[in-house]
Amino acid sequence: MKKLSILLVFCFFLSSIGISTVSAQDLQTGYIPLLTPGYDTSIPRAELSHKQFQLLLPELMEAKEKGEITSFEPDYFGGFVKITYSSDSIAGSNISAQSVGDLQQVFVPVPSSLGAGTSIGSASTYSPNISIYLYSSCVDIGALGANDHVQGTLISSGQIIANLDGIADSSGNLSSCFDGSYSKLIPGYIVNFKFYSSSGTFLKAVTGTIPRFTVTKFDMLNAVISGTASAGKALDFFWSHPNLDAANTVLQVSKSGTASSTGKWSVDFGSQAMRGNDYFSVSYSITQTFIAFNQFWLPSLSCGIRSNSCVLTAIPNSSVSLSITHAGVMHTFTGKTDNTGFFYGYLVDGNQEPIFLSAGDVISGTGATSYKLPNLTAVSHPTTGKITGMAPANSYFVVAFRKLGMNDWNWRWVHSDSAGNYSADFSSVGIPTSPITIHIDHTNKVTGNHTFFYPGTGL
After folding, report:
1. Pick from 328, 355, 382: which residue ends a domain?
2. CA–CA distance from 418 to each of 7, 154, 390 (Å)?
3. Total structural domains within the chain
4. 2 and 55 housed in the same domain
């Protein structure tokens, strides 16, 4: 088991996103970072990005509902959220993590220490290691020469729809993103790479078709996941399971397998039951050094107390329903999950005004375990430097606060006692007497269902 440093990333991320705002007059697309330099490389990039995305999701959903943005798309390997603004809004006007228009200012490359090597040899033995990530725009390439030049094209229906142009670092590694009319790496698209030395000598061309491999079933009790891929193809699997314990550790398990002659695969991760919101990835070798990855999150529900939104995570591209019972009235939403398995529900009344969720509301959704929103409370005590309150008994979770108008959050990993009481000690940094925003982020240890709460303080 390895220590899960998501909370450290959370603190570092929130303290470093004070990026200048760009107006919609100059920009219709913006990017919000989900990773920071120095992130914990023992945790998959996509998993870290997903955790940060969950923190931003309430604000993104609210901004979309208000019409301030027209869409938002997380790129989990890329480590950013792409936002499209409505023509009459100021970009990110009500989103605390402001966006920038230049993706290169947001994208955090894979650390060079993760590369496969720097000794290249002659052009005839030149063999770059290429990793692509389905539904991301970004790639990671290792085993290049120092300062090698890489050009890439993404092709759909015979047409180039995106390009990549980058220079390897001194260790022979390049992390970069495609840019174009539609830059996501979609199954069936063709991706081409051409490699040149730092002096401009052509070294190699690599071409591959992005494969399709999917999940069809999650058996969380027995820790078995099933899916499809090309017949007879060798596959590698990875499962990550936060233990939600005092040391904030994580269980990580790797397995290998092969798709059957009919293209079906199944992987058994052992006796430890899985939990909703656990991370799972599967990789597929296009060639020996050209690998594609896809990642998924196990079925779960996420809702915010005093918000009007919930998110169901289920099998990607599947028909689902999400039900929210508030004040004795059930509200049901139906549709399809996106490529990451997300489906969003907004609770509004007949005037299209928000209905705010509260403790005791019952949430259910396809493939996820139903749950009742827990009672979460928080009271600030500036004189003692503590935030106290109630939460589900005997659980570990995040309590954080920030001053109004600031992006710098202070956080603590806290534990509630058998009666549900908790105390988060911020005496080392101090709690101001002026109004603050508190954040509580709680995950049920059995189901993985997630509840967030942003209470404020006032006079």
Report:
1. 355
2. 24, 55, 11
3. 5
4. yes
Using left for φ > 0, alpha for ψ between -120 and 50, and beta otherwise, residue 352 falls in: left
Q: Give the per-residue pLDDT at 403.
A: 86
Q: What is the pLDDT of residue 55?
A: 76
Give the position of tokens 């689902």.
320
The pLDDT score that the predictor gives to residue 198 is: 94
CA nearest neighbour of 375 among 423, 431, 446, 306? 306
* 303 shares a domain with 293: no
Classify 448 as helix, strand or coil.
coil
Residue-number span of the structural domain to which 405 is assigned: 374-459
Residue where a domain stops, chosen among 192, 209, 226: 209
HEC sequence for 50-112: HHHHHHHHHHHHHHHHHCCEEEEEEECCCCEEEEEECCCCCCCCCCCCCCECCHHHCCCCCCH
Q: How far out from the chain centre does Cα 278 lie? A: 12
> Where do we find the tokens 């989900």?
34
Strand order from edge to edge, sheet including 202-209 = 179-180, 159-167, 149-156, 190-196, 202-209
The list of the chain residues with pLDDT below 50 reads: 1-27, 91-92, 114-123
3-state helix, strand, coil in the chain (%, to 5): 10, 45, 45
Residue 365, in any domain of the structure = no
Alpha helical stretches, state H, 117-242 = none
